[in-house]
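Incident log, entry 3
Record: protein-serine/threonine phosphatase (94 residues)
Problem: checksum mismatch between cached and fresh output.
Input:
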Amino acid sequence: DYVDRGLYSVETMSILTCLKLRYPERVQLVRGNHESRAVTQTYGFYTECMKKYGSAQVWHYFTDLFDYLTLSVVIDNMIFCVHGDQIKVMDRFR
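Fresh output:
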């Protein structure tokens, strides 16, 4: 989870987005369960954006970005990266 974990979720996402843009082949952002519109409205990211910017526009930009984040990444055909919450879902497909 990149957001809903403190007072600096906007700054965290801004830095991660800049790193992804600067190093697109080296930085992979994996979507967690908090990178969704519904969850961010419940757990604080929406409120943080409203307090810092006075409108929901920044929240909309980031939640649109979340829609494009991958759910998993495989590194060197050896390391499988996924948010921990997704493991529960994947267990059903064994």
